[in-house]
Amino acid sequence: MRASFAALALLTACIGAPTPTAPTLAGSLGLPHRGTLTHGAGLPLEGPGFRRFRKDDIRFGHPRLVGAITRAAAAVQAERPDSPPLVVADLSAPLGGKIVRHRSHRTGRDADLLLFVTTPDGRPVPSPGFLHFGPDGLAETEDGDFVALDVERTWLLVRALAADDEALVQWLFVARWVEALLIEHALARGEDDAVVRRAERLLRQPSDSATHDDHLHVRIACTAAEEAQGCISGGIRWDWLPALETALPSDESLIAAMLDEAP
């Protein structure tokens, strides 16, 4: 049964969109690194508490992902209204699939968020781009200047994403030393233990790609209904996420029809 479901995901990745014989296949289809997206939501160029880093079409995502970003950005702005906005980099292409700069980001469930920064003396400033932060929380700009990781605002961002039960965040990929700075800050300010524990589980340095010392990579999980339609979360299913059905669907006739149509 699982093999048939995986085959379904592979086929949707090949054809790129629902077919006439499979019109119900829509949404986030397949795995983050092998799949497509339909009916995605576009992130505006700017909004309350955020702006996009690039003016291209790599700005589409699952509506839950786009909603999570906009809600988190607004939450940070509400607590620090005079600070520069969150800078949002790549999401997915309008129909998902492979894009430049990424191995994943193919199904509308991934987004890159630049880390908040300050001057070395603690004044919040706009993020100049992807900067590699070290364990000391400092990064060097292209001009040779130094900026510091804004641990406070970055934690507010992580907290908002982790506590967003509507979003179903599965991972927050970031370098382990950035995670350490964030969790240390959260504990020092007496944040809710449950939120801190959840953040600790979500924050993870990826083992099969760059260390992510220059941005926060958000990934959301699939719902049970979405898994039934071809979305595959993969990896860990956290105990606070809605449970999936124990038996995943296997529609052999649907798969056969898609095989006939695949180029």
Structure, described:
Mean pLDDT is 85; it is low at 1-22 and 247-263. A hairpin with a 5-residue loop joins strand 9 (117-118) and strand 10 (124-125). Helix 1 runs parallel beside helix 7, helix 3 crosses helix 4 and helix 4 (176-188) packs antiparallel against helix 5. This protein has 263 residues and is α+β, with helices and mostly antiparallel strands. It is globular. The strands form 5 sheets. A 4-stranded mixed sheet has the order 8-15-13-14. Strands 10-9-12-11 form a 4-stranded antiparallel sheet, with no helix packed on it. The chain has one domain: 2-Layer Sandwich (Muramoyl-pentapeptide Carboxypeptidase, domain 2). Helices cover 31% and strands 19% of the residues.
Descriptors:
263 residues; alpha+beta; Muramoyl-pentapeptide Carboxypeptidase, domain 2; four-stranded mixed sheet; four-stranded antiparallel sheet; 31% helix
